[in-house]
Write a structure and sequence with these properties.
Layout (H helix, E strand, L loop, with lengths): L1 H27 L2 E5 L9 E2 L7 E2 L3 E15 L6 E9 L5 H6 L3 E2 L7 E4 H7 L6 E7 L3 E12 L4 H6 E5 H7 L6 E2 L1 E6 L8 E2 L5 E5 H4 L1 H39 L1 H9 L4 H5 L4 H31 L6 H4 L10 H25 L4 H6 L2
Helix pairs in contact: 1-7, 1-10, 7-10, 7-12, 10-12
């Protein structure tokens, strides 16, 4: 049972370290291509200027157009919200939209997709109408149906962006056709320094961590905490297994003394390759395999059905993640090595004990 609990704890910690950062990168990208400016400013440039930009293998580019707006539910004096229209070509960036967990209730050719947070704040449901005042070279008021609800589990993103087709911004809000605000870069290798080549000199490539510093400061803190907890849990697991092995060996001390009196040598019984230590190690390995199998089964069930839930606004993921951790194999290996050394030390102690004293010990 202790092996199952400890293995599961290490798998959960590794799941947090792996899945939370993956969740963030898969939804908001690894890099941004922007004009030289402060990130808070909104500027535009022609998408055609990217025609010579070459993406490396495993890199996907998603152009986007940002237009500030104020939205309120149509025919309602309820709350309003200042947002940014996030214009993308929904038809061609399906993977990006899929990662945002979009639930549609109709065609989005003339509608918008808002986050669950904004829907709650505006008291609006999918299929109802928003009154939108967008600001591009002056205010423009339009009525747009809500065609979907999304959730990125990233509060900064969800509170800020309403997804809309870029073509709709061109047609309904007077934005010059072909203009974009930037490009989101999704790279399979998150550590790649230059995912694109031949970038125009007045455009810059920045890491997503520069655009969302608070999120990545939190992620760095989380990763450090996970590493510390993994070390603590691993140390406890090693200590428990070594102690369990020693207890099993010491529990057999009278049997060892009896067999020694029958003519078996102490070395053949409890030496480095003795019968009893090997049997205990084999039993321990069997327990490790069974405990690992049970932990893996629990992890697969949790990954498939998401039984244990989390607050996505806090953890950027809505369930407790499990992920196989190679650290478990390392912990098992260290445990077996230390167990063998503890048996070796015990052997040097046992061989000095008088047999008659051990047999008379109660």
């Amino acid at each position: 049972m202790s092996l199952v609990i400890m293995n599961s704890a290490i798998m959960i910690l590794n799941g947090f370290k792996k899945r939370v950062s993956e969740n963030v990168f898969n939804k908001i990208g690894t890099h941004l291509i922007l004009p030289y400016q402060m990130y808070s400013e909104i500027k535009f440039f022609e998408e055609s200027r990217l025609k010579n930009v070459k993406a490396k293998a495993g890199v996907k580019l998603v152009p986007f157009l940002v237009v500030p707006a104020i939205v309120i539910k149509h025919r309602n004096n309820g709350p309003s919200a200042g947002v940014l229209f996030y214009g993308i070509n929904i038809d061609t960036v399906g993977t990006h939209v899929k990662e945002l967990s979009v639930k549609t209730c109709g065609s989005c050719n003339n509608g918008v997709i808002i986050s669950g947070i904004l829907a709650n704040n505006l008291r609006i449901n999918c299929g109802e109408t928003l009154r939108v005042t967008a600001y591009y070279e002056g205010p423009r008021v339009r009525l747009l149906p809500v065609c979907g609800i999304y959730s990125s589990n990233i509060e900064n993103f969800d509170r800020q962006f309403i997804i809309i087709k870029t073509d709709l911004l061109y047609r309904r809000f007077g934005v010059d056709s072909g203009l974009i605000s930037g490009v989101r870069v999704f790279a399979d290798n998150r550590d790649i320094e230059a995912p694109v080549l031949s970038l125009p000199p007045d455009l810059r490539l920045i890491r997503i961590s520069e655009a969302y510093p608070q999120i990545f400061e939190w992620l760095n803190t989380l990763n450090m905490n996970v590493i510390i907890l993994e070390v603590i849990v691993g140390s406890i697991l090693i200590f428990n297994m070594v102690c369990a092995g020693l207890i099993m060996l010491i529990d057999r001390i009278r049997v060892i003394a009896f067999l020694n009196a029958m003519g078996y040598s102490i070395k053949s019984l409890v030496g480095p390759s003795g019968i009893i230590p090997l049997s205990i190690i084999i039993m321990t390995v069997f327990c490790m395999i069974v405990g690992g199998a049970v932990s893996a089964t629990l992890g697969i069930i949790q990954e498939k059905f998401h039984i244990i839930k989390l607050d996505p606004q806090v953890y950027f993921i809505d369930y407790v993640p499990f992920s196989f951790a190679k650290e478990i194999i390392v912990v098992w290996g260290i445990s077996l090595v230390l167990m063998w050394f503890s048996f070796l030390l015990t052997y040097f102690v046992i061989k000095r004990l008088p047999v008659i004293r051990v047999l008379r010990f109660e």
